[in-house]
Predict the structure.
Amino acid sequence: MSDTNGVESVAVVAFDRNQDIAGEIADELGGSEREADVLEYHADVFTDGWGAFDCFVAVMASGIAIRKVAGLLDDKWSDPAVVVVDAGMTWAIPLVGGHHGGNRIASELAALGATPAVTTATETTGNPDAEPAVETRAGALNARIVTPDSTVATNSAALAGELGPVVRIDGPRAVLVDDEVTVLERGTRAAGNDGVVIGTGCVSGAGAEALLDAWRDALDRTTHGPGDVEFVATGALKEGEEGLYEAAAEFGIGVVTFDRETLFDHEGPTPSKSRELVGWPGIAESSAIAGGREGELLLEKTSYGGEITVAIAR
């Protein structure tokens, strides 16, 4: 699995006096699937690199970065993200493109001691019922947003907790939507790099550590490891389950919830008491199948302590 969340190239821009800090940042953000280059600041450094990188990390005062990139901004769907970090590594501030990689990069810099100063509405609302932004859902699914103009309406609904779960529709189908429906199209994985989806159900209040232990054990029963997991899938009734989201964050992946009808359309082979108790199909298998690109179940529902169920599909 790629853990870049759409940010495959980063430019760390710093003055000569802060090159050591820039090197630490590049080492933290870079890896086998993400390029991280250090660029020494000069008057045209942002202009020269604009369009060549998915994100700029600017080690400097925010005012400098704002003045330099303001005239370059064109469209949020194509502009690179810009994150400012102070020389003391106290704050990581996504100035531009928070939902397009900036928030993710800022959160990764927490490993170096910086506090992510995230300001996007869906992440900072006081509404406990607020849902993940559609960009966040697209990132978890490795999907592109086909109808970008719709996201004003759908993110407003997410902010109010009224958007609801992802609905999966398999083709060939013709779908008629209005301009307030965000359509996500799954990306294509490279040959020989097939990811898997963890489908999971859990009792209310299940702890993150227990979930992580269950997921690791389930993966050990397959030929896949944590790095192969694209995202965690579950039912909409588990939206906001704290331990589940904490565990997914520890894995560095997102959580995707599916509605009841989608899960019934992708129901797994193992009988489940969920049908009788809450009128839902078995969450682990159906969500794994619904989330998997091929819909092929690799591990049937496995129960852990009567509190957590896990299935794996691709």
Observations:
- The mean pLDDT is 88.
- The first helix runs from residue 19 to 29.
